[in-house]
Amino acid sequence: MASTKLLVVASRKSVTKSFSTSSASLGRHYKLLIVGSGSGGCAIASKFSRKLGAGHVGIIEPKDDHYYQPWFTLVGGGIKKVEDSGKKMSEVIPRKADWLKTTAEAFDPKNCTVTTATGEEIKYDFLVMACGLQLNYNLIKGLPEGFDKDPMLCSNYDYEYVQKTWPAIQKFKGGNAIFTMPNTPVKCAGAPQKIMYLAEEAWQKSGVRDKSTVMYNTSLSVLFGVKKYAAGLHKVVDSRDIKINYQRNLIEVNTDKREAIFQKLDSPGETQTYKYDFMHITPPMSTPDPVRKSCLVDEAGYVDVDQGTLQHKKYPNIFAIGDCFNAPTSKTAAAAASQSGYLEKNLTAVMNGKPAYVKYDGYTSCPLITGREKCIMAEFNYDSLPLETFPIDQGKERRSMYHVKKDIIPMIYWNMMLK
């Protein structure tokens, strides 16, 4: 149930084994192999390394650091420090799991092997895809190099670029401020709006708001996909005179002229150019290239699973969790937290020769920060129906929900979800 997210348990640090193929024997075989150690991957590794014991769970993950990415909105808004947003990967991967510090480059589900960047073929009995999404700034002409050229370009989705956001907000002296939403699924569909509300509030306080036009250029045809929360957000944008330009997809940034070129998705073949004085960019996203090019994905490039059981439609010993699969739910850490319980039960059943039997309902949560001390706590399912935790109207801006987002959920993430 959604309310279980609010339980907090004592934290503990773990010592994790890390291997590279130069020091490890070739031909390793795991009962369970996990690709990716984001929120979903760590949660599943923790559950099954306790069940299966040391040496039976392997995690393929090349990165040294694990970030609590929802924190980046608060960093960009000048509320939190970026250095507080992460921990070393060795602290979050469970001690009984083997950390394979490399990338997965090829998948052979018929022979139950994953080939790594160093050429090692790792065998598995069961595979969990938890590889998340990659950020494709390069699909926008003029990026990513534009971030180095223009101090008024920023993006909360990248550890380096998020550090530009608050300084750019402070430097802004008026003109056009544009916030974008791309024509692909993204991590937390509300995040491109959250930074807009925080920035607009800051400009009100600094006295430049009356000299500014704040625009949300979204590739979507709606402000938010759930009617109840969209209604609350429309009240916010209307009261604060924020202009929404629907079905506008950013395709080019010209930093010399400070121009942004958008596809007009409602008029195929046409573009529209906007002058900008500040722009926050949400990049197009996809599954990592090796996954997108594999036989595990659907036509859109996402791991092809049953949306209820999270089991692969073609390969029954493969499951997925988090942002990388194709079920129609918003991609958030809260969704991965909910999925981990369903996946644990279904994967355990399949390991024991039984069919997957529990059905994930698509629960996800998106705390929509609309300012300092204000938040709409969106919680909903596959059918875009509210699935709320608290006995209040969560479609309204509330200070209490802001502190749940800012203070309580991060503690739950580090001390409960990953463990």
UniProtKB/TrEMBL annotation:
EC supergroup of this enzyme: oxidoreductase
BP GO terms, sorted: sulfide oxidation, using sulfide:quinone oxidoreductase
Annotated EC: 1.8.5.8
Subcellular location: Mitochondrion
Pfam families registered for this protein in UniProt: Pyr_redox_2 (PF07992)
UniProt GO MF annotations: FAD binding; glutathione-dependent sulfide quinone oxidoreductase activity; quinone binding; sulfide:quinone oxidoreductase activity
UniProtKB keywords: FAD, Flavoprotein, Mitochondrion, Oxidoreductase, Quinone, Transit peptide
Record's catalysed reaction(s): ubiquinone-10 + hydrogen sulfide + sulfite + 2 H(+) = ubiquinol-10 + thiosulfate; a quinone + hydrogen sulfide + glutathione + H(+) = S-sulfanylglutathione + a quinol; ubiquinone-10 + hydrogen sulfide + glutathione + H(+) = S-sulfanylglutathione + ubiquinol-10
Predominant localisation class: mitochondrion
Record InterPro entries: FAD/NAD-bd_sf, FAD/NAD-binding_dom, Sulphide_quinone_reductase
Cofactor names: FAD
A GO CC annotation given for this chain: mitochondrion
All copies of domain FAD/NAD(P)-binding, residue ranges: 30-146
Record's function text: Catalyzes the oxidation of hydrogen sulfide with the help of a quinone, such as ubiquinone-10, giving rise to thiosulfate and ultimately to sulfane (molecular sulfur) atoms. Requires an additional electron acceptor; can use sulfite, sulfide or cyanide (in vitro). It is believed the in vivo electron acceptor is glutathione.
Similarity section: Belongs to the SQRD family.
Annotated protein name in UniProt: Sulfide:quinone oxidoreductase, mitochondrial
Species for this entry: Mytilus edulis (Blue mussel)
Taxonomic lineage: Eukaryota, Metazoa, Spiralia, Lophotrochozoa, Mollusca
